[in-house]
Amino acid sequence: xxxxxxxxxxxxxxxxxxxxxxxxxxxxxxxxxxxxxxxxxxxxxxxxxxxxxxxxxxxxxxxxxxxxxxxxxxxxxxxxxxxxxxxxxxxxxxxxxxxxxxxxxxxxxxxxxxxxxxxxxxxxxxxxxxxxxxxxxxxxxxxxxxxxxxxxxxxxxxxxxxxxxxxxxxxxxxxxxxxxxxxxxxxxxxxxxxxxxxxxxxxxxxxxxxxxxxxxxxxxxxxxxxxxxxxxxxxxxxxxxxxxxxxxxxxxxxxxxxxxxxxxxxxxxxxxxxxxxxxxxxxxxxxxxxxxxxxxxxxxxxxxxxxxxxxxxxxxxxxxxxxxxxxxxxxxxxxxxxxxxxxxxxxxxxxxxxxxxxxxxxxxxxxxxxxxxxxxxxxxxxxxxxxxxxxxxxxxxxxxxxxxxxxxxxxxxxxxxxxxxxxxx
Length: 425
Prior knowledge:
Structural class: mainly beta
Strand order of the largest sheet: 13-23-22-15-20-19-18
Helix content: under 10%
Number of strands: 25
Number of domains: 2
CATH architecture of the largest domain: Sandwich
């Protein structure tokens, strides 16, 4: 293994890779703000439109070249990751700005902030830049990937903003949705005099509606604030995407894998994202890979499991969609995860959950450390009482009794009252 390339502000290095992982890392500490990674795809210093901004509320560029993959936590370390695939980059894009924003304080209170560039082909670290001089800044350009004479390079930047992610984004041409303020009352005016109607002329062409501005708000659910109203934030229509990502941090007994080689174990570990549902007509059921019960978005239960991922990889994970255009038919939906094979419990698994409404802010949370022999975990409960659609963070590890399936265990815990029969994939 070669020496790690620690960079200083203004220096640059070649990036001889087809695709890279851009990892932001920092120390988690009480009272310290959270940090979020983002990327801006530029043409001559500006975005072409708001779609060139990749961040937690807009996690993938339409070209597939840049993706926001989400956070990982282990002990006191947190990482947030972007992936950049140069082979899918549009030819007009000549720069990708790598930025960080602080949520809940300034970067002067964030310890150990760094960005590193990793070749996705072999996991080798190409470069690392450590930020050590932050004070009142709430957003940072840590670095940039840029095209020079047909080859990509990475430059360490370290430029701070005290206007947050909004200030940084607008500098590059992003239109940001600002919080609504009470409208100003206009001064009374005299009505304009009536004029004769002009002769009939063709109506001027109607301009296409402008794309809605980017929303920077997000919601992180915790034990102290475990729920959020989708109704209050306008997230009651369109597709609600639920994503589960996980990572193995330690070796399980008998697997013989070394610490830090978690990726090699993903092939052995199979987690299943599932959903129990109850509709307003009283019908109940489950959406899961077991028994090929993948559901449907266009007919009851209006829930669909995308597939059965067996990697937990940053680029995929398990994904499930709820069609909120039919939310009036949904009474409650419990999102849960089971271990199908590859481990005896969730111990040493670090998982994060993101719920992304088509309208409204992203909702995310991490699972706590598992200290019991659990093979099923209730993640989130979506409830509709006829007036309010809410998301409740559960993050509840359950321990099945001997001979009882994980599905029946979560059913009993939440009083679903279904009949279960053995099933296989």
